[in-house]
Amino acid sequence: MTSTLLPYPYVFLSYSRIEEVFAKRLEQDLRARGIWVWRDETNINPGSPDWEAAIRDAISHAYAVVLIASPSVIKSLYIKGELNLAKRYHPKHIYPIWIDGTDWSDCVPIDFINTQYIDMRREKYGAGLHTLINALKRVEASSGQNAGINQRDIVINQQRTSQHVTPIYTTSPARKFSRALLINGIIVAIVLLGIIGAVIYKSSAQQITSNQLTPSTTASMTSTQSGQSSPQLNQSYTGTTSGFANGFLTLSLVSQDQLGNVSLGVTFTLADNNKQANYTCQGKVTNDRHIALQCHQIDAQNFMLDIEGVIFQDGHMQGTMTATDSSDPNYHHNYTWNAK
């Protein structure tokens, strides 16, 4: 087997490699709320001889597909292939989420331009996550009910078949055994129908309860369950960048308060020409170990960096970075970075 299919209903996550940090964050947040996610890096066994077969298998067995949409999507032939398969297996259960870019039409293939999407860019992440979870919960509950109905039909058909067995005209012990077997089969079928009915009822009740939760209630529950404080940053981090151009990154902590608000100095150096730019950054470190910064170049305020990442338990950070120029709308460069 080239892939590991989850033993639970799951959603398939379609994303470009440059959005890997966001994909990991989304996977963690969905799993924390009871939604299982299939992602290639997590669920394809190392050394699998047929990677494409694993992707096909995973999409066909999912109950929904979530597309992480950004400007990098339209450059990926693999994502276009995954979406074609998703339209074949799940035409009504494809959920695009928009995480980066200024124009939606530049972030998806042509046939998805008019598709309704969920905006999860920067500060809209929390509200968008709530909308996505509600949508996926409804689909998961519906797929569970359909599976129960299909299983019930199988049991009924088997029961009808058993009821039309040709009678055995004999007075031997074999006849008594056949009758006992038939009666036991009917009893088992009735018990299975009762169990399936109970499962469907429970799933419907959970669905109703989920829909009645308001965003404020959900946020309150999440906050209460976490019970964690934001991690304290080190005084400095150094690392590398890749993407539009390779380079080096240095982050220096200026201040951090108890609420996770941070101020940092960032130096970004391009590897090919040693060109260096210094930035002042303001942002926040969240309880779930995510960091988001907005930076302005010290000697050229029109040049900006938007930095997002994850702080791992061992202390290192990694994430994505977007460089823009407020005076030039065509200046938009994406990077990934690692620092420790």
Give a short overview.
The chain is α/β, with parallel strands linked by helices.
Attribute tags:
single chain, Rossmann fold, Lipocalin, 3 domains, 8-stranded antiparallel barrel, 7 helices
Summed up, the domain count is 3
Tell the overall outline: elongated
* Radius of gyration, in angstroms, nearest whole number: 27 Å
Strand and helix order: EHEHHEHEEHHHEEEEEEEE
CATH hierarchy class name of the largest domain: Alpha Beta
Strand order in space, largest sheet: 6-7-8-9-10-11-12-13
Helical fraction = 25-40%
Total of DSSP H or I helical runs spanning 4+ residues: 7
Kindly, what is the distance between the CA atoms of the first and last residues, rounded to a whole number of angstroms?
Answer: 37 Å
